[in-house]
Amino acid sequence: MSRPCPCTSKKPYDRCCGPFHAGTAMPETAEQLMRSRFSAYALAKVDYLISTRPEAKRADENREELEQYCKSVSCVSLKIISKEKGGQADDTGIVTFHASIQASGRRSLHIETSSFSRERGKWVYADGTVKG
Asked: Which CATH class is domain 13-131?
């Protein structure tokens, strides 16, 4: 049995976000993609973070900055607050979440409403609005 998944689903990593990161499965819902991206931040899976952005936005991602950010924070916990659409039969979805993050010894709460869409059948993170 593997370690608990960083997305705080209470499932083992190898039966939760691990297969998405390994490329052996694809998220079927916007929430699964959101959780897998949180776990990717926690584990510094930068390639996964970039690959789950829309193709048109991938070139804008700064791999070095993203990697540095991932290494500078500790992703403590994730709580899904609400979901709109984003199911297996949907083409768009919205997920609002609270992420508890620790950086430089200080814990903060990142509150975001994220938009997701399907691109060639695959869920991607379109954009997000940070609150507070």
From this structure: alpha beta
Which of helix, strand or coil describes residue 75?
A: strand
Task: Give 54-76 pLDDT, tens digit per residue.
Answer: 999 999 999 999 999 999 999 99
Q: Could you give the C-alpha distances from 95 to 98, 108, 120, in angstroms and in order?
A: 10, 19, 20
Q: Is 72 helix (H, G, I), strand (E, B) or coil?
A: helix
Global pTM? 0.95
- List the alpha helices (DSSP H) in the chain: 18-22, 30-43, 46-51, 55-58, 63-72
pLDDT of 43 above 90? yes
Integer Cα distance of 3 and 100 in angstroms: 19
